[in-house]
Amino acid sequence: MPEITVSMAAGRTDEQKAGMMRDITQALVKNLGVDADAVVIQINEAPLAHKMKGGKTFVERAAAAAKK
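RESULT FIELD:
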């Protein structure tokens, strides 16, 4: 049973997340030859203030991008 965990910043819609999980499931079915019922996908979301890249939180990065 393949189990995939996706870690990402919060902010996507439920529809976007469901679509991503369906696509990942189909990729595993195609490439690993497993049944879709065997695939488990879990999303771990972090609030934007709890995720950092390049020394700035995603909140800080969004604010800087909005100023440009």
